[in-house]
Write a structure and sequence with these properties.
Elements (H helix, E strand, L loop, with lengths): L1 E2 L6 E2 L2 E2 L13 H10 L4 E4 L8 H11 L4 E12 L2 E8 L6 H27 L5 H9 L6 H10 L6 H9 L14 H10 L3 E4 L9 H13 L4 E5 L5 H13 L3 E4 L47
Parallel strand pairs: 3-4, 4-5, 7-8, 8-9
Antiparallel strand pairs: 1-2, 5-6, 6-7
Helix pairs in contact: 1-2, 4-5, 5-6
Length: 303
């Protein structure tokens, strides 16, 4: 698929799962869209955790810099199913939808309550100031466990955020607090009320057996889900093939996304993203209209 959005037509590369500083991403929305163009992405969805706060500044940056990028308004919503935390990405949502805005306000309250208890549990383990440190790092953005992880790395309790999750924030560890999320149907309904498409995110990360993954997909479809995230960056070829088979089996559209938070040697915007043959892309019927760059516009100004 090719869209003419510059003097030379460029292949369309979709990355439909990314995060900015509006939640737990490293880059500002402005820097995120600039990096997407630098990485060759033509269509980017910003899908911050339970917030739409990054969409408007990203749109403004695209216009101001005349970037050759189509922005898809999105959000990643946390839910609970059978004691598993399941993430559902909403794509092509209307950001002013009252139903979605109200639902995300409730999600934010749930996050704040969980964060307070997380800080208390860490304090009882003699890790002081974790809540305040996480809030400082969030800088007013949606507070996530990622901010707690960054604070503990900053304080020297670990060298990597992944180690913080493993030793402090995972189930059964000192700072773990059970999530307070609602069910999948609640999230899907809010996405649909905003005119969006509901995508089951990164299904390979839930550590489910094949039998339980099919149970999850059955429940997701029963909740009104529309699509499955089939292609991700760090993924074995057989996993992508198996997810494509499941998308066809459950009559789900297929999505792809990097789940970008920050650049690493193995994960970046647009990296290794393509759908196997035989699936219907989630964007198949979208009307996409990327903006043509103006002469003299500089991508570097946005980096």
């Amino acid at each position: 698929m090719v869209l003419a959005n510059s003097p030379e037509s460029r292949p369309v590369l979709f990355d439909l799962h990314s995060h900015s500083q509006a939640s737990d991403g490293l880059l500002t929305p402005e820097a995120l869209v600039a990096r997407a163009v630098m990485r060759g992405v033509s269509t980017l969805a910003i899908t911050d955790h339970d917030t739409l706060a990054g969409i408007v500044p990203a749109r403004q940056a695209i216009v101001a810099q005349a970037l050759p990028l189509t922005l898809v308004a999105g959000v990643e919503i946390s839910t609970l199913w059978e004691h598993h935390e399941i993430h559902i990405v909403g794509l092509q949502v209307e950001t002013t939808s009252p139903a979605l805005v109200d639902f995300l306000a409730l999600q934010s309250q749930r996050r704040d309550a969980r964060a307070v208890e997380m800080g208390q549990r860490l304090a009882r383990a003699r890790i002081e100031g974790a809540l305040e440190g996480a809030q400082r790092l969030a800088q007013g953005a949606q507070l996530t466990r990622g901010h707690f992880a960054r604070y503990l790395v900053e304080r020297g309790y670990a060298t990597r955020c992944s180690d913080v999750f493993k030793h402090f924030l995972a189930r059964g560890k000192t700072g773990y607090v059970p999530p307070l999320w609602g069910g999948m149907a609640e999230a899907v309904a809010a996405i649909h009320a905003a005119g969006g498409v509901a995508v089951l995110a990164h299904p390979g990360r839930y550590r489910l057996s094949a039998k339980w993954l099919k149970r999850l997909l059955t429940a997701f479809c029963a909740a009104g889900g529309d699509a499955l995230e089939v292609a991700q960056c760090q993924q074995a070829p057989h996993e992508r093939h198996q997810l494509a088979l499941l998308a066809r089996q459950f009559s789900l559209l297929a999505s792809q996304g990097s789940d970008f938070h920050q650049p690493t040697p193995y994960l970046d915007l647009g990296r290794a993203l393509s759908l196997p043959d035989g699936v219907t892309p989630v964007w198949a019927h979208w009307a996409l209209a990327p903006q043509a760059p103006q002469p003299g516009a500089s991508l570097l100004e946005a980096l």
